[in-house]
C-alpha cells in the first residue's frame, strides 16, 4: 500500500516524498507542474501529471494504485496574490480539495494529512500561537485553508474519514541538493536572487518592538516539516489517536535581521540590507508553539538558522551549476515514471 502525495513535485511536497521513501513507505505523486518540477520526483516513484479538479483522473489513479492514505500538499499558496485572484484561489484550494475528498470516499480511501497554514490565524493578538488561538484569516489563501480544514472535519463526521491538518508559517532550507524553493514570493529565494544579481536585499521596517527592531517569525526547516508529515501518516495508518490540527512551530522564532546576518555569513557576501518602509498590518512577533506536535508527531527543530540558510544556499548553488532539466511536454494524466 502506498500514500498519495498531491503536489509531490513541489518544494514541500518533494521533501515529503523523500521522507516517506526514507522510512520505506511507497508513494505515488500527483502534480500539475504549475509550480512543481518533474525532476524533483525520484525516478522510481509513480508520477501522474494532472489536475486535482479532474475527478475522473483521480478515480483512475485510485483504481490503478493501492492507496492507503493521502498527504494533500497541492494548492495555490501565494497569500498576497490570492487577494488579486480570489476565485482562482478558492478553486484550487477549496473546490480541488472537495473533489479529492469525493474521489477518496468513492475509492474507500479514508486517511488524509492536510497541509494547512498558519495563515488561518490572520494577525493573532498573542505572541505565542496555539491550536486554540482564534482563527481570523486575512486573505483568500488563509480562508481557503481554513475551509479545507472544515471539509476534512465534516467528512470525518459524515463518513469516518481519519484526518489531521498541519499548520505552519515560513518553510525554508533544503533537505537535498536537488530540491529547492523556487517560489518568486518567498524570502530566501528573493534574497538569493538579489545577491546573485548584485542587488542588496531589503527589509521592511526596523522599528518593531523586538530585540533588533525587525519582525520576528517562525522559520522551520522543510526536512523537519516533512518528518512530521510522515509521523502523522503513520499515526493515522495505525489507527492511533490524533488531534484534528497541529502547529509546527519553533516556539521562539527568529528575526528578519538575524536571517540577513546569517545569509551574509553563510554566503560570504558582505552586505547591509536596504531599509524599506514598514508594511501595514505587520505585527512585531508571531511565533507558534509546537508542543502538541512534539508530543504526537515527532516534531522538533532539528536544524539551526545557520543550517537552514546553508542548506538553502547549497541547493541554490547546485541548481545554478547544473544543466537545466526540462519538465514540459507532458500530457495531463500521463504516468511520467513507472513503478520500480
From TrEMBL:
Pfam families tied to this protein: Epimerase
Cited InterPro entries: Epimerase_deHydtase (IPR001509), NAD(P)-bd_dom_sf (IPR036291), UDP_G4E (IPR005886)
Lineage: superkingdom: Bacteria
Residue span(s) of domain NAD-dependent epimerase/dehydratase: 3-249
Keywords recorded for this protein, A-Z: Carbohydrate metabolism, Isomerase, NAD
Names of the cofactor(s): NAD(+)
A molecular function GO annotation: UDP-glucose 4-epimerase activity
Family statement drawn from the similarity comment of this UniProt entry: Belongs to the NAD(P)-dependent epimerase/dehydratase family.
Protein name according to UniProt: UDP-glucose 4-epimerase
Gene: galE
